[in-house]
Design the sequence.
């Protein structure tokens, strides 16, 4: 789990501060764990992370590649709030077997196992295969600067709350939820043979999407739903599961 960084948010305003910024209700993390994202004002993805509510702080478990940016962004919003932000050296372990004492079940999907903060280790689970099976995106692969979280399944993954009130990017996200039908999004495809991540999908020779994480003959893809028939990935036949 060396690819994760744990940020600590302390101070008396910590919950109120995060509540006005992130996509999920911070109260859901009290004494447990919640999944959320930080968006641009235009509603596009900046970072996804877990929030862990402890007695005197909220931990943010984020991909290490995003940690400096996330820390800087949060600091920009701090203004006069009684909030302190810092990166820690806390490790996190994860696995899919019996959960050790103190472990927290992944809030996106119980199939993604548990996370234990303050411990190191990984039980060797094939995480890519598990993500593909359960349609779970990952930063730098399916999730990037052009992503909209509803297209990436955040409602299904318990990463957005439509009743919590305002947050950065909330207006665009709410409009996508209530006023439009999603025309693109994350899908699982079956391939006649494995292909490389980044391979273009076509439907009747028209652009249809892109293959991302590949696990055997299954893959996660970003797909136009109106072009989900007669798919090929490069020259390899594919179909939506």
Sequence:
């Amino acid at each position: 789990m060396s690819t994760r960084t744990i940020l600590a948010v302390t101070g008396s305003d910590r919950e109120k501060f995060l509540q006005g910024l992130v996509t999920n209700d911070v109260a859901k993390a009290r004494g447990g764990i919640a999944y959320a994202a930080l968006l641009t004002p235009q509603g596009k993805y900046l970072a996804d992370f877990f929030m862990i509510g402890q007695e005197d702080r909220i931990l943010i478990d984020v991909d290490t590649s995003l940690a400096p940016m996330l820390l800087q962004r949060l600091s920009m919003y701090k203004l006069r709030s009684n909030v302190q932000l810092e990166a820690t050296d806390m490790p996190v372990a994860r696995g899919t077997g019996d959960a050790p004492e103190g472990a927290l079940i992944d809030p996106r999907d119980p199939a993604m196992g548990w996370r234990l903060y303050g411990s190191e280790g990984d039980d060797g689970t094939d995480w890519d295969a598990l993500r593909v099976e359960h349609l779970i995106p990952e930063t730098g692969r399916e999730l990037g600067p052009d992503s909209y979280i509803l297209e990436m399944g955040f409602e299904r993954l318990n990463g957005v709350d439509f009743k919590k009130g305002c947050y950065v990017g909330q207006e665009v996200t709410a409009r996508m939820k209530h006023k439009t039908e999603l025309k693109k999004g994350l899908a699982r495809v079956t391939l006649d043979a494995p292909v490389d991540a980044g391979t273009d999908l076509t439907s009747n020779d028209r652009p249809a999407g892109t293959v991302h994480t590949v696990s055997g003959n299954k893959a996660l893809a970003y797909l136009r739903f109106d072009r989900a028939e007669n798919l090929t990935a490069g020259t390899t036949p594919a179909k939506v599961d």
Notes: The chain is about 15% helix and 35% strand. The longest strand covers residues 206-215. The two ends are 30 Å apart (CA to CA).
